[in-house]
Design brief:
Blueprint (H helix, E strand, L loop, with lengths): L12 H20 L4 H4 L2 H12 L8 H36 L5 H16 L2 H12 L3 H25 L4 H8 L4 H35 L6 H11 L3 H29 L2
Helix pairs in contact: 4-5, 4-7, 4-9, 4-10, 4-11, 5-7, 6-7, 7-9, 8-9, 9-10, 9-11, 10-11
Length: 263
């Protein structure tokens, strides 16, 4: 005999209201923006775009320029790696309080600080830190660390809050210290997830570090801004290719590390 499926639960009015609000927001967004689709899809726009792209070919392949591009790529990679490592330390320090392990007041203060850190984009952080640290990769590294600390701190705190508390309580009940109970019961449960979050943010910081150079934070982004401002399109094409290769290599390495660490 065929079994009938159970009756679907009734939809709450709040669900319908939320869906209607989202639909109204999408419609209002399209209505308020002056989207000129006809001009964008016109033959003139296509011709101008093709002429602009043709100026990037062929890329600059002079050995001296390739060596300079490679050094800038290493600078961008270093910025992202150091910024991510600093963010891991800051995120871990704030995540303990943000997870509510030291009381409600500390939780509210830590989460408010994390909201401030991650709500300010990396470009804004870099613009502010350039005043204090000066031009160069140091300001870009600090900007990545500040923004990523807010992101990782929130993700780490959520991971700690969602962890099963029973193993840690069992160790505490058997006389273990709070630090030992956390390190041997809670941290091993969240460590694979934290590593995955860290590697993912490192991938994002590679892209962000390349963009931060536009405001003078060094690396490939600064080279790209320089050559585009002088309309040296062939040199800019080489820098863009270096960015794509760097991101692809880091994505592949990050994927391999995640597979190895989360097995």
């Amino acid at each position: 005999m065929t079994r009938r499926l159970p009756v679907a639960p009734p939809r709450q009015y709040s669900t319908w209201l939320l869906g209607a609000a989202l639909l109204a927001l999408v419609v209002a967004s399209f209505a308020s923006l002056p989207l000129q689709w006809s001009a964008f899809l016109s033959p003139d726009a296509a011709t101008v775009t093709m002429e602009f792209l043709a100026g990037f070919a062929p890329p600059e392949t002079a050995p001296a320029f390739l060596r300079k591009t490679a050094l800038a790529a290493l600078e961008t990679l270093s910025m992202s790696a150091i910024g991510t490592l600093l963010a891991v330390g800051g995120g871990l320090a704030l995540s303990m309080s943000a997870a509510g392990r030291f009381g409600r007041i500390q939780r509210a203060v830590a989460r408010a600080l994390l909201n401030v850190l991650r709500s300010i984009p990396e470009l804004v952080w870099a613009s502010l830190l350039l005043v204090a640290a000066g031009l160069g990769p140091f300001a870009g590294t600090l900007a990545l660390a500040a923004h990523t600390s807010g992101v990782l701190g929130r993700l780490f705190a959520d991971a700690l809050e969602n962890t099963d508390p029973h193993p840690e309580r069992s160790l505490l009940a058997n006389g273990a210290s709070p630090g030992a109970a956390f390190c041997y019961a809670t941290l091993p449960q969240t460590l694979p997830q934290m590593l995955s979050y860290t590697l993912y943010r490192w991938e994002n910081n590679i892209r962000a570090a390349a963009v931060l150079g536009v405001v003078g934070a060094g690396g490939l982004g600064q080279m790209l801004k320089f050559h585009l401002s002088l309309f040296q399109m062939q040199s800019a094409a080489t820098v863009i290719i270096a960015m794509l290769l760097l991101v692809a290599l880091v994505d592949a390495a990050s994927f391999a590390l995640r597979r190895a660490l989360t097995r």
